[in-house]
């Protein structure tokens, strides 16, 4: 599946959205440093001044890409956490969601993951950085709650969250949604490995990680692509 490109000439926000979609794709394909207003303007048949009028600077445009991306991810996370109560189901949902991002919004996800290091301390990224931290805190809380409830073996929840993010955030370097395995099967394999490491029993792992099971269906509903 591919991300929709906003049709040119839309009455409200059309050109601005079109610029952002094109810039996002360039960042995904080339990286931020090689993406530039000139190439975006040439592809869209407009002047660079039009882009400057809408966004000001390239840094501001990237910040908006990151903010929009993380706002959607937080909304989705709160939605599936509201439907799922067991810690192992919630961990599985984060993994399934992480794979779906790369499937349903490949350009935006790759652009975010390629340039996530810019959230560390660059000016202008404060909002996106806070959103990223809020998402991380949700994952840490689920891992900590699971350990305290005896669902997971004791361990450092923050470190475990980094292990999760490390595996998911590098998917852009190798993942092909149209490849040998269905995206849901990739998510299931990641989930099985993670839950086994957290000490969850094999029968429960199989049920929670099931690529066609209730957790996967919940995430599919919550994270369905928007028109």
Automatic annotation (TrEMBL):
The keyword Transcription regulation is annotated on this UniProt entry = yes
Q: Which domain of life is it from?
A: Bacteria
Q: Which Gene3D superfamilies match?
A: Homeodomain-like, Tetracycline Repressor, domain 2
**Is Repressor given among the entry's keywords?**
yes
Q: Which residues form the signal peptide?
A: none
Instruction: Please list the residue ranges annotated as the HTH tetR-type domain.
Output: 13-73
Q: Which residues cross the membrane?
A: none
Annotated region of DNA binding: 36-55
Any Pfam family the entry gives:
TetR_N
Q: Which UniProt keywords apply?
A: DNA-binding, Repressor, Transcription, Transcription regulation
For this protein, the record's PANTHER family field holds: HTH-TYPE TRANSCRIPTIONAL REGULATOR RUTR, HTH-TYPE TRANSCRIPTIONAL REPRESSOR KSTR2
Task: Tell me what this protein is called.
Answer: HTH tetR-type domain-containing protein
Source taxonomy: Bacteria, Bacillati, Actinomycetota, Actinomycetes, Pseudonocardiales
């Amino acid at each position: 599946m591919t991300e929709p490109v906003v049709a040119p000439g839309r009455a409200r926000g059309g050109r601005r959205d079109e610029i952002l979609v094109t810039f996002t794709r360039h960042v995904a394909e080339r990286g931020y440093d090689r993406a530039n207003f000139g190439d975006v303007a040439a592809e869209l048949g407009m002047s660079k001044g039009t882009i400057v009028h809408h966004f000001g600077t390239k840094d501001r445009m990237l910040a908006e890409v990151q903010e929009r991306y993380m706002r959607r991810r937080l909304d989705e996370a709160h939605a599936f956490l509201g439907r799922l109560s067991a810690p192992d189901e919630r961990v599985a949902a984060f993994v399934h969601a992480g794979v779906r991002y790369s499937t349903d919004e490949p350009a935006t996800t790759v652009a975010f993951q390629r340039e996530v290091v810019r959230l560390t301390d660059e000016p202008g990224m404060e909002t996106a950085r806070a959103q990223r931290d809020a998402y991380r805190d949700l994952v840490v809380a689920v891992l900590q709650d699971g350990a305290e409830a005896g669902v997971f073996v004791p361990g450092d929840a923050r470190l475990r969250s980094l292990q999760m993010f490390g595996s998911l955030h590098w998917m852009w370097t190798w993942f092909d949604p149209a490849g040998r395995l269905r995206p849901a099967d990739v998510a299931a394999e990641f989930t099985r490995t993670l839950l086994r490491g957290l000490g969850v029993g094999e029968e429960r792992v199989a049920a929670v990680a099931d690529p066609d099971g209730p957790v996967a269906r919940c995430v599919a509903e919550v994270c369905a692509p928007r028109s």
